[in-house]
């Protein structure tokens, strides 16, 4: 009856306190931690090659999202989790 709700379901989220940004709850899982440990070195290499400028965080998150997706993790960036916040 309410199948449309399942399709448009928001990712689970959490925050450390009332004043902090929302984070993707997948970051709390063991699968995410293992996948991040695998990609961390490659991620740091790729981020270090990015030009240091405004908006760099979006490019860095995009790389992180792609690397995690290759490990089977559906991760949402801070910008996706906090649509009303302007990241620079």
Describe this entry's structure for a reader.
The chain has one domain (about 25-88). About 50% of the residues lie in helices and about 5% in strands. It contains 4 helices and 2 strands. The chain has helices at about 5, 30-50, 55-70, 80, and strands at about 15, 25. The protein has a two-stranded antiparallel sheet. Strand 1 (about 15) and strand 2 form a beta hairpin. Helix 2 crosses helix 3.
List keywords for this structure.
2 strands, mainly alpha, disordered N terminus
SSE blueprint:
Blueprint (H helix, E strand, L loop, with lengths): L2 H5 L5 E2 L8 E2 L5 H19 L7 H15 L7 H4 L7
Antiparallel strand pairs: 1-2
Helix pairs in contact: 2-3
Quick structural gist:
The protein is mainly alpha-helical and 88 residues long. The chain has helices at 3-7, 30-48, 56-70, 78-81, and strands spanning 13-14, 23-24. The chain has one domain.
Number of strands: 2
Distance between the termini: 42 Å
- Domain count, please report it: 1
Strand line-up of the largest beta sheet:
1-2
Beta fraction: under 5%
Q: What is the helix content?
A: 40-55%
Low-confidence stretches: 1-6
Nearest-angstrom radius of gyration? 15 Å
Number of helices: 4
> Biggest β-sheet: count, sense, barrel?
2 strands, antiparallel
Please trace the helix and strand order, writing H or E for each element: HEEHHH
């Amino acid at each position: 009856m309410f199948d449309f709700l399942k399709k448009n379901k928001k990712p689970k989220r959490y925050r450390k306190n009332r004043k902090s940004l929302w984070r993707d709850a997948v970051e709390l899982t063991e699968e995410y931690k293992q996948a991040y440990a695998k990609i961390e070195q490659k991620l740091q290499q790729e981020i270090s090659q990015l030009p240091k400028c405004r908006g760099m965080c979006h490019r860095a998150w995009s790389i992180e999202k792609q690397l995690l997706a290759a490990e089977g993790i559906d991760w949402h960036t801070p910008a996706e989790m906090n649509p009303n916040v302007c990241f620079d």
